[in-house]
Amino acid sequence: MDFSRVELSAEDEAFRTEVREFLAAVVTEDVIRRDRETGDNFDEGVHLALAAAGYLEKEWKTEADGGFSRVQSRIWQLEKRRAEVPWVTWGTTSMVARSVAKFAQPEIRDDVLRGVFDGTVRLCLGYTEPEGGSDVATCKTRAVRDGSAWIINGSKMFTTGAHNCKYVFLITNTDPDAPKHKSLTMFLVPLDLPGIEIQGIRTVDGDRTNIVYYSDVRVDDKYRMGEVNGGWTVVREPLDAEHGAVAAADDGLADVSIMMHQAGFMVEAADNIAALVGSRATQDTSVGYRLGRSIARIEASLSASSIFGRVALAQTMRDVAPDLMDIAGPAAALPIGAEGGLDDRSEYVYRFAPLVGIYGGTLEVFRNMIAQHVLGLGKPAYAPPRQKVS
Ligand SMILES: Cc1cc2nc3c(=O)[nH]c(=O)nc-3n(C[C@H](O)[C@H](O)[C@H](O)COP(=O)(O)OP(=O)(O)OC[C@H]3O[C@@H](n4cnc5c(N)ncnc54)[C@H](O)[C@@H]3O)c2cc1C
Predict the structure, then answer these.
(1) Which residue range or ranges hold the Acyl-CoA dehydrogenase/oxidase N-terminal domain (predicted)?
(2) Number of domains making up the chain
């Protein structure tokens, strides 16, 4: 990992100024207030403006293909975070668009990608089901062939952004008798088809996600991605990317692990609370100790890479948020913007932390992955220990 400082060229400095000004004009106070109210983590006006300025396409493409340079790409990511651009639906869209480019049938592929770049087509992930999400391959939503189409029945839990998207990247079971990894077929299902019902769910941190019901939904075969029963090949890549199992670029211009964006809220809260307590941190040893411990843990988690970072960040967020709130006192229990509250997000971080340890794979599952695949400890055994026979 390269930790050296990056010297910005005059061109890069100009680019930073340009995007900073652009984002400041587009991501207004109104956008942020509306986003808190809806929990959407998406704003259509902002999204279309980013698309119209060419930023979505440049972010998605490699430099060789006309996208940002590595330095520009880093500047762009950091500036988007500073400006608090609602991010979740572009995150799922850009991830699924990679599978579209690779696996969608030519009949729909180019149209979908064009729409992704002009902002009109957004894509969401339909993996998790009400009965379980950790093992994505245990999928019960059925797709049954019917001439040149498929009939889909089932339901998907936590399809975040579905109400703002045109298609869902849907994992279905097309052969219940086959071994689970050979029973799956992926589709890019238009969300306006008859038989699809989207119901909103608000999570504890205020985010909006959805449960989506599929009742006799007729989908043309042109929306199938990859081979019939070959869905595992299609879904592996985006799953690995979401899980952070792909190596970060080694040039110092990438996040060292996934979830750095989410960790930014924790960093901001710790900075705010440190400023708020001021000299109490040195006068009151309890305050100093808890603040110092929180900051040390945050720094350590920010330097942990790959899947270790994914675990460290989410666990640290869960552990330090209560300390930060305690240090700040009772006003910290009020949400940001509430009368009498602090101008600080530690209360939000407290509510957000459990979710950060669930979506994209739970902390328990990640700990098992580290144990099994990194430390070589073998598969966990969940059966109770056998009774000794005397
Ligand atoms: C805010 C939010 C947004 C989300 N957005 C999306 C989305 O857009 N699309 C989508 O498809 N999904 C989405 N999810 C779902 C998310 O990916 C799942 O919640 C997650 O994978 C866990 O699945 P589950 O909730 O069904 O829990 P389960 O898989 O039922 O697990 C229940 C418990 O058992 C534990 N467990 C399960 N398996 C193991 C194991 N092998 N070893 C040890 N412990 C285990 C888990 O850690 C957990 O504590 C979202 C979830 C949230 C909270």
Answers:
(1) 10-119
(2) 3
